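S1.2 Input.
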Amino acid sequence: MKVGIVQQSNTGDKAANIAKSLKGIAECKAQGAELVVLQELHCGLYFCQAEETEQFDLAEPIPGESSRIFADAAKQHGVVLVTSLFEKRAPGLYHNTSVVFEKDGSVAGVYRKMHIPDDPAYYEKFYFTPGDIGFKPIQTSVGKLGVLVCWDQWYPEAARLMALAGAEMLIYPTAIGWESTDSVEEKNRQFTAWQTVQRGHAVANGLPVIAVNRTGHEPDWTGVTNGIQFWGQSFVAGPQGEIIFSAPSDAEINTVIDIDKKRTEEVRRIWPFLRDRRIDAYGEILKRYID
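S1.3 Output.
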């Protein structure tokens, strides 16, 4: 299967950001993409660098103007499209939501981000209510997609539950970057950890992983920090964790990668992790901590 990824930089110009995403979708389709994945919150800046109530004005209902634009793009190009939108569900109730569109523009399914961070420059708990849909793969014409979002990518439980529900691949729209005062060594450790944990999900579940991150510098408009340098480096890993593709850190890219879905069966036959799970002995995993 041919998977397109759109790694882009964003500004405060929403229309320009959307136009850039649409161009990326078109370029991926021209390269033969059947599935296209966009990065986290691709319609605007990463507004979670500060806690400001006016930022909630960026949210939209689903369906809404942005979801209709991307539904039309999926239909126009005949691709399955994974998007990431700031959803206004009700007054005072907002989600970080991935909407997956079918090739005909219909909604194949929705995933609401489950794990919500609250760290310096990533104040997402202020904006996003944790998802209430659970870890359910989305059935599409190109397969069953295990769509998760950014902070979810650090949790093996999320990947495992998607795999156990029949996901054929794990997909992570992402917005992650470096703080300017970190040393080069620390920056390298952070990126390596980020990629390694997701490659581990691929290995543990025998599934390909698609992680699409944003790139470019986005300033902190409050001046509290020096902003975030998003590290790009979107990548695709195979079911043994092997790197199939890795994007540059500092450039936009619209490209297509071939994924062999048949390898999941082959790999799971030689590494039967699902067969050998001791589900009778894992009850304590539901505890916060084992004292």
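S1.4 Remarks. Helices lie at 14-30, 65-77, 156-164, 184-205, 263-270.
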